[in-house]
Write a structure and sequence with these properties.
Layout lengths: L22 H14 E2 L8 H5 L5 E5 L5 H9 L4 E6 L2 H14 L4 E5 L2 H7 L6 E7 L17 H10 E11 L2 H12 L4 E3 L17 H8 L5 E7 L2
Parallel strand pairs: 1-4, 2-3, 2-5, 3-4, 5-6
Antiparallel strand pairs: 6-8, 7-8
Helix pairs in contact: 1-4, 3-4
């Protein structure tokens, strides 16, 4: 078991802000959770049982409103996706999107991703793990809350298959630099773009509306792609 922080009260990388849930999001949660949702617990997940097939398995941590996850799943029906998010409006929005698109290759968990990785994801079971635009916790006194820390990277490695990909993206330059430093220092990961280089955005990662707006304003996004040692 790998914990993000060793203290009586573990440091969370998120603050649970539920926000306003629309009637459509609430309805999706009420009617579609049984189809797509997985209740958190302590039992190890069986991906073959979840999806009734063997296929490449991808985990997205913190999918926000779920638009990108649904788009990736629609574009790659040959792959299975597990999304973890703590904010229920975003989960409701994703479920509504999955139902509209009639997608069958996505499952969803509402929980702390670190706890799910520790307790329910089998070792060496994932082909890729995506972490797009995690909270940068930009104030220095909050940097300890950032999810990308050495123990977390070690946990990620344990869940990837040999050669599996850890793909991160952020629009906060200082956080991108920290991510690069932490991953570069991890001996079991290799930067796909070479030492100390960021990666070009792969075509499978959709541009979010927020990202498109930022590009028009001249803002930059940094992608990082590291592979797990074979």
């Amino acid at each position: 078991m790998i914990e993000l922080a060793k203290s009586p009260r573990p440091i969370r990388s998120f603050v649970l802000r539920q926000g306003r849930m629309t009637p459509a999001q609430r309805s999706a949660l009420d009617t579609l959770w049984g189809q797509y949702g997985i209740e958190p617990g302590t039992c190890t997940l069986d991906f073959h049982d979840l999806f009734s097939r063997n296929a490449p398995r991808i985990l997205e941590i913190g999918f926000g409103m779920g638009s990108s996850l649904a788009e990736m799943a629609a574009a790659h029906p040959e792959q299975d996706y597990l999304g973890i998010e703590v904010h229920r409006p975003g989960i409701g929005n994703l479920l509504k999107n999955l139902d509209t698109r009639q997608l069958t290759n996505v499952r969803v968990i509402c929980a702390d991703a670190v706890e799910i990785l520790n307790n329910q994801i089998p070792d060496a079971s994932l082909d890729a793990i995506y972490l797009f635009f995690p909270d940068p916790w930009h104030k220095r006194r909050h940097h300890k809350r950032r999810i990308v820390q050495p123990p977390f990277v070690e946990l990620i490695y344990s869940k990837l298959k040999p050669g599996g990909c850890f793909h991160l993206a952020t629009d906060w330059e200082e956080y991108a630099q920290q991510m690069l430093e932490v991953l570069t220092a991890a001996p079991k990961f290799t930067n796909t773009s070479g030492v100390n280089h960021y990666a070009p955005r792969p075509t499978y990662r959709p541009l979010t509306k927020f990202e498109q707006r930022g590009q028009r304003l001249g803002h930059q996004v940094w992608d990082l792609m590291f592979t797990a040692a074979e």
